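Could you help me review a protein record that somebody else here produced? Do not assume that whoever made the record got everything right. The record follows directly below this note.
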Amino acid sequence: MSLMEAPVARREFGLTKPRSIVDGDRIRTVPLALSGRFMRSNKNEFPCQLNEVSVEHMMLTSPVLVSNGEKIIVYLDHLGGLEGEVTRPITGGFHLRLNITTRKREKLAAQLTWLINRAELSGLEARRHDRVTVSNKTVALRYGGDTAVECRLLDISLSGASLETPVRPDVGMEVLVGKQNAIVRRHHEQGIGVEFVQVREANNLQGLVG
């Protein structure tokens, strides 16, 4: 399946011909502003903002100077965690070459296509796919085989969720959040942030937020 044919993109957008992140064999770079942070190899994290993106490269601004060839993990709203290598430090930021699998590229293409078409969606559809803050909702977190704990769901989006929990499964561990397969991408003061293995359709999240 080509990036243009990513089925999640066509279903989620409700558009006959959504603008795509790819154009035939040409991979497009598009302007897109998303807030986030990145983690260096020493596990220190710093704020950043996405300015331009394709399924292969990103350009980000950051107050922290990074080195050419440095490997980092960047966490961005709506996109989750992405690994890459710095290809060119610039004043106030850097260019990043993504190191992702074909499956991850398909997922990223679907996410980016939705994001660049959000302006064409109705207000209701756009709100359905944004990050949603959740109140008084618990969900089962399963990891390490048979281990299961109840966690408070802090917020959720198509690409992942934030959970309040005293347990800290290792970053990179596969877990189940409710019935959603996910990967632990970060630890924070209240618990963990997870990324769904597949981009979720909005109606498939009702079991978590309904």
The chain is about 15% helix and 45% strand. The helical segments are 7-13, 102-116, 123-129, 206-209. Residues 1-18, 119-129 have pLDDT under 50 and may be disordered.
